[in-house]
Amino acid sequence: MKLWGGRFSKSTDALVDDFNSSIRFDARMYAQDIKGSMAHANMLGKQGIIDKSDSELIVKTLSEILKEIEDGRIEFEIDAEDIHMNIEKILISKIGDVGKRLHTGRSRNDQVALDIRMYLRDECDNLSAMLKNLQKTILTLAENNIDTIMPGYTHLQKAQPITLAHHVMAYFEMFKRDTQRLTDCRKRINVMPLGSGALAGTTYNLDREFVCEQLGFDSITQNSLDGVSDRDFVCELAFCLSMIMMHLSRFSEEIILWSSHEFSFIELDDAFSTGSSIMPQKKNPDVAELARGKTGRVYGSLMGLLTVMKGLPLAYNKDMQEDKEQIFDALDTVKMCLPVFSNMLATMNVKKESMLKGAKGGFTNATDVADYLVKKGLPFRDAHAVVGKMVAYCIEKDTVIDALSLDEFKEFSSIFEDDIYTAISLDTCVNQRKLTGGPAKETMQKIITKYKGELQ
Predict the structure, then answer these.
(1) Is the pLDDT reported for residue 407 higher than 70?
(2) C-beta of residue 362 within 8 angstroms of C-beta of residue 158
(3) What was the pLDDT predicted at 23?
(4) Rounded Cα gap, residues 130 and 117, in angstroms
(5) Looking at the predicted structure, is the pLDDT value of residue 42 above 70?
(6) Is the peptide bond before 315 cis (omega within 30 degrees of 0)?
(7) Burial 366-383 (b: 16+ CB within 10 A, else e)
(8) What percent of the chain lies above the pLDDT cut of 70?
(9) What integer pLDDT is reported at residue 289 of this predicted model?
């Protein structure tokens, strides 16, 4: 008989048991469920709601059950529906009527809200550690390539010369924001709902603040209806995960392009590449492609969560059971992608000469030619027009601006002097951009040093 089966005259249909059960996916919350129950039992004993000796036996037995689960000595049952009922059923089987006192002053509604908050709080910490490791990898890559000149792009067209350090540090900024979002999201996760009951609290003299402190929460929920029906924090975390994957996907796209024969900017390590079943020459960037592809999966979890929640009346509804599969899958996907992506970056070979060659083509120093003229007194729009004509001339002659003679320069403007060649060298183009956020070597050294200190 089900623990809730008192008012029912027949057993649940086997198909309904399977359909209704969530133990297949919420079993992963066993530790959080047990720790939450231990804190609840301690509080019940402290408040005199149940005998202190009973609460102590419950806590002791729950601790033993936790060890048995971790040792693989317990199998959960589908007909017990979920992790909460499974744990309670095991507890009762061990200590009888005393175990039946555990659920006093508590509903599965506030119990599951507690468990999911504790679980996601732990996962935020795990994700932050993974992001920190990825950021360290990016810092090392940047530090090793602070002088590696490459073309910067807009519209995937060569635009201006930058360094690889400058390029990858843009992703560092993205992942830094991801870490900040996780930290901020964790604050809203870390609010303790136990004591909300099914929806209207309870008449028992619970000490919610005691449980809050025991379980490491920052505060308690202030409305029992909201306490059991709030899943904003799940949706918010799914959004944070989607942002992480978006950034991984953008970076993956560039890794895929850079490793192509047409770019040849990098070569991925053999250990992070795959081959073709038919074409012996192939070396495919499958890690990056999979990270890019799995982004859609995480987006799907976010949309699934928002869709489940969009029409639900207060308070708890069974629909909300669907939150766990969505957020767990999103978490698993991101946690799978982050370490393998980080290791792929750490082991890839940067082809510095190819990057430099790429920067020398495509007139990436054209803006600096215009800036040279402006600094000599020509209005920017006039300078822009002059350089546009020079580019057209070079395309016609199949040459580059740097290769023009001074006489050719002067055909476009008498302002040009011998110093034009220094002014538009790639080294000058990069290292004169010293403003905060620019690619100059001294600027990059400062920001890398700053961020290394912050991560430590």
Answers:
(1) yes
(2) yes
(3) 85
(4) 20
(5) yes
(6) yes
(7) bbbbbbbbbeeebeeeeb
(8) 95
(9) 97
| Overall average pLDDT of the 85-102 stretch | 97
- Angstrom distances, CA of residue 355 to CA of 31, 149, 203, 350: 51, 6, 71, 8
Q: pLDDT-based confidence at 14, cuts 50/70/90?
A: low
pLDDT at 20 over 70: no
| pTM greater than 0.85 | yes
- Please give the residue that has the higher pLDDT: either 8 or 232: 232
The confidence score (pLDDT) of residue 78 equals 85
Query: In Å, how far from its chain's centre is CA 56?
Result: 40
The pLDDT of residue 25 is 82
Burial 285-310, CB ≥16 within 10 A → b, else e: bbbbebbbebbeebbebbebbeebbe
**pLDDT single digits (tens) 46-86:** 999 999 999 999 999 999 999 999 999 999 988 888 999 99
Which amino acid, residue 410? K
- List the catalytic residue out of 53, 63, 260, 276: 276
Is 155 noted as a catalytic residue in this protein? yes
Task: State both tokens at 32.
Answer: 């959080």
Alpha carbon separation from 102 to 38, 56, 82, 115, 215 (Å, rounded): 9, 11, 16, 16, 17
CA distance 270 to 133: 22
- Flag whether pLDDT at 13 surpasses 70: no
- Has residue 2 got a pLDDT over 70? no
Separation CA 171–CA 341 (nearest Å): 13
Q: Indicate which residue of 21, 107, 155, 414 is catalytic.
A: 155
Asked whether the beta carbons of 208 and 194 are under 8 A apart, the reply is: yes
pLDDT of residue 7: 65
Residue 198 near residue 143 (C-beta atoms within 8 A)? no
Place of tokens 């939450």: 36
Q: How far are the Cα atoms of 32, 270, 274 from residue 279, in angstroms, in the given order?
A: 50, 16, 12
Which spans in 145-231 are helix H?
164-189, 208-214, 224-229
> H-type helices in 259-351, by residue range?
286-309, 322-347
Catalytic site includes residue 247: no
In the chain, the N- to C-terminal Cα span, in Å, equals 55
Structural domains in the chain, sorted by start? 12-104 (1.10.275.10), 109-146+153-204+218-357 (1.20.200.10), 358-455 (1.10.40.30)
Q: Distance (Å, rounded) from C-alpha 245 to C-alpha 268?
A: 20
* 417 contact partners, CB below 8 Å, separation of at least 6: 406
| Three-state secondary structure call for residue 362 | coil
What single-letter DSSP state applies at residue 13?
P
